[in-house]
């Protein structure tokens, strides 16, 4: 009987030793959610809120739920991004450059304003820089 009990306890002890520790790593937040190689738009300031990530031109942000909703962005591509005020690359444009300067909050006048995203390309008439506003 003692051997039978030992036979039952050994597998239970072995299973208890295989429990994996719970990870304490935190999920990326804010701008850090945007993967390398993507252009990301956020519905909140400073990379907060809902996010979309794009790898190519997008003529209409409405199906992605970001039409007239973006407040910040991060361009983690090598492309210059032309942001259009209207769908199908119409209206006026503003630009988000590639590299370290391609991350931040939109001017207040351009928040909840953009409807399409074009990678590289010719761009269009400038929406202008609102007086006294910085990125």
From TrEMBL:
SUPFAM superfamilies noted in UniProt: gamma-Crystallin-like
Cross-referenced InterPro entries: G_crystallin-like
A Pfam family reported for this protein in Swiss-Prot or TrEMBL: Inhibitor_I36
Keyword Nucleus: no
Signal peptide: 1-27
Keywords, sorted A to Z: Signal
Gene3D superfamilies: Crystallins
Organism: Streptomyces luteoverticillatus
Full protein name: Peptidase inhibitor family I36 protein
Species lineage: Bacteria, Bacillati, Actinomycetota, Actinomycetes, Kitasatosporales
Protein's UniProt keywords contain Nucleotide-binding: no
């Amino acid at each position: 009987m003692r051997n039978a009990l030992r036979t039952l306890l050994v597998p239970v002890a072995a299973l208890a030793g295989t429990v994996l520790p719970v990870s304490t790593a935190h999920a990326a937040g804010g701008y850090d959610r945007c993967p390398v190689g993507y252009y990301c738009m956020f519905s909140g300031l400073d990379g907060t809120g809902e996010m979309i990530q794009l790898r190519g031109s997008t003529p209409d942000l409405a199906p992605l739920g970001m039409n007239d909703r973006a407040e910040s962005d991060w361009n983690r591509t090598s492309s210059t991004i032309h942001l259009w005020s209207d769908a199908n690359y119409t209206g006026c444009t503003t630009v988000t450059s590639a590299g370290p300067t391609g991350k931040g909050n939109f001017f207040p006048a351009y928040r909840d304003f953009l409807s399409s995203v074009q990678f590289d390309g010719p761009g269009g008439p400038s929406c202008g820089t609102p007086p006294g506003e910085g990125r």
